[in-house]
Structures are given as C-alpha cells and as structure tokens.
Amino acid sequence: MAAIWTRPISCEILHQLHEGTAVRQLGIEFTEVGDDFIAARVPVDARTKQPYGLLHGGVSVVLAETLGSCGAAFTCPDGHRAVGLDINANHLKGATQGWVTGVTRPVHIGRSTQVWHIDLRNEAGELTCVSRITMSVLAPR
C-alpha cells in the first residue's frame, strides 16, 4: 500500500506541532505513523482522571480528535486545511491506570470532507472507546 500522506509526517513532526497545546499538557505522545494510520497514547494519571479514578471521557475525545485531525491535516491537498465538523465517541470500558492508546485510520478522504475512525485501547488491548470524526477540508483563502 502506498502512503496516504500528502506531506512529510512523523512522530517528531507531530510532537513539534503540538508544543504549547492541550495535547502536551495532557501528556499525549505520538507513538507511530504508518502508511495509513497514526497512533498516540495518553497517560491515565492525575492530569487525565475524573473524580471516580477513571480516564475522563473528555480526555478520550481529545485523544481521538487529535488523531483524526492530524490524519486529515496531513492528507489535505497543498495549501488546504482541515477543521472538525462532528465527533462522536462511545465509551466502552474504563481505564484506571497505565496508558490508553489510540489508532486512527481514514474511512473517507474526499475533496471537501474526510471521515476518520479512531479505536482506543488500554494496555491489555481491550477496547475502551470507539470514535469517529468528520472533518471539513477548506481551500486556501
């Protein structure tokens, strides 16, 4: 399979892109970029837990949106940008420690919209959340 990316992409590039953002504050780390996917993980710690000791559902959505948005941004035509239109998440299992890892892959890469699917799993490989994000592709101004 040929890579889907329209510009250079790597974990290092993605880390640099997120300096000084919520992604960095939450401890999200990009772990792998493949020909058609991006993976990242978030720690389950004091920054990311809700009062019952579980990974906050909103943090799961931040991880999912980060992954889907990065995927869309790096598959857009030159000069175009992608912005979120809609995201949903189904929280299937709680995580109380360790790391939760997300992997995103495209469902649809079109001229004006993109749809990305994101699976989040705990360290045991159990599915904790499934998410889907729809992105709008905007032409240069």
From TrEMBL:
Keyword Mitochondrion attributed: no
Pfam family, one: 4HBT
Keyword Secreted: no
Cellular component aspect of the GO annotation: cytosol
GO molecular function, one term: 1,4-dihydroxy-2-naphthoyl-CoA thioesterase activity
CDD domains assigned to the protein according to its UniProt record, in alphabetical order: PaaI_thioesterase
UniProt superkingdom: Bacteria
Keywords tagged on the record: Hydrolase, Lyase
EC number in record: 4.99.1.1
Thioesterase domain boundaries: 52-129
InterPro entries associated with the record: HotDog_dom_sf (IPR029069), PAAI_dom (IPR003736), Thioestr_dom (IPR006683)
Protein family according to the UniProt entry: Belongs to the thioesterase PaaI family.
Name of the molecule in the record: Phenylacetic acid degradation-like protein
Top-level taxonomy: Bacteria, Pseudomonadati, Pseudomonadota, Betaproteobacteria, Burkholderiales
